[in-house]
Each structure stands twice: as C-alpha cells, then as structure tokens.
Amino acid sequence: MIKLKVDNVSKYFGGLTAVADVSMHVNEGELVGLIGPNGAGKTTLFNLLTGEDEPDEGKIIYNDDRRAYELNGLKPYKINQLGLARTFQNIRLFKKMTVMDNVKVAAGQAVDYNIIEAIVRDPRFYKQEDVIAAKAESVMKMMDIWELRNELSSALPYGQQRRVEIARALATDPKILLLDEPAAGMNPQETKDLMQLVRQIKKQFKVSVLLIEHDMSLVMNLCERIYVLDFGKLIAQGTPEEIKHDPKVISAYLGGE
Description:
By secondary structure, the protein is of the alpha/beta class.
C-alpha cells in the first residue's frame, strides 16, 4: 500500500525553482532515502510534505487505513495529527526544557481535556497526564535517553540531542517518519548506532521512513529505495545498487568522470 504519494509537485521562490515537477512515493513499512547535493531541494520537499510550505503545483496525498487525504494547504499540526512526523536538519528542541518535558509536549498533542479541567485538576486531566508520561517514558527508554530525562536539552551533546528530537517525533505516534540528516555531526560509531536505531524504530513502531542523508554508507546500507534530486529535479530513483551505478547520479553527486 502506498502511504505517501507526491504527484508532479513544484515549488518556486521568486525566480528560483526549488522543487521541479517531482513525483515519488513511500510504501507502507518502507525505508526510503532522499539524496542529492546541497541546495538540491531535499529539505524544501520535506517542508512541502509537512506543511511548512505549500506546493505551487501538484498534489501530496497521504493514505491511512481508511481514506486518502490531500495534504496541500493543511497546517503542520494537522498533518502531524494525520500521521506524519519529522525531525529537522537544524535541531529544534525546546532548549530551556528538560528532555522529559520536550517529549511530553509531543506526546500530549492528542489530549482532549479542556482548560477548566486542567485548571481544577479534574480526574480526567490526571488520567490523561499519566498516559502522556507513560508514552514519553516508553519512547525515551527505547531511544536510550531515559537516564537523561531531567537534563536540559541544551546541555546534551549533539548526538543525544538528535535522539531526543527523534523521540519527540515518535511520541506523536506517526505512521511516516521523516528524518532530515539525522547523522549530521555524528562520529562513525554514533552513525553506526543510528543505523541500527532506525531499523529498530521501523520494526517496533511499524512506521515508514523517509530519510535525507549525506552519509552514503548509511544510505546505501539502510534504505530499500533511493530518490536523487539535483537542482530541484528528480534525476534518478531505484535500489541502492542501481543508484550507485547510475551515470547521472555519479556525475551530479557521487563523484567521478
């Protein structure tokens, strides 16, 4: 089943074409890579998928188990509620909040108690808060950051901040997880650990994963299919083996004559 479909999507910023007539899809339970040189339009495409920007042309369709939703024009929080969650190239944690509170904020996006129940501390408020805390604890333990729960997010090393950001995304119960350069700034051992972690996340949370990454070892060993962008255009798609030997990809991105 196709979970996410991008149909002939384009995005313009003034006279610049950031994304040009791109079509792609992500199947249920699939791990897909999105690669290309800096400035190729990868993060812009993520922004279109998650409502940070709106396509100027084309459609983005998300399928859950009941129906298809057109994502064009929806606010980011609405898209998140439907089942898409993301991390960012530049980490966007609440730096003055603890790790626990960062994750609880995300886990609490589905609460339905009202402001009066929150003020008077109605029993329903406490019940839902207990559910939020339990969800946050479960995700943090899986991400191996439970022991850091009372630390300020800003005090953590870069690699651990990445884990917190992924945990926060998972706490929203996504069906599709979009990771924007999760290995950026990591050393080789951290990158190796991340590769195993992404596989574990895909299996345990039963999510599809769309991954932007420049570490080709990670992409080639982790992804089932890969799309390649260059100057906003899709220049290739296929298995890691096919992409590795594609002349257009070698010329534009992987290097070579």
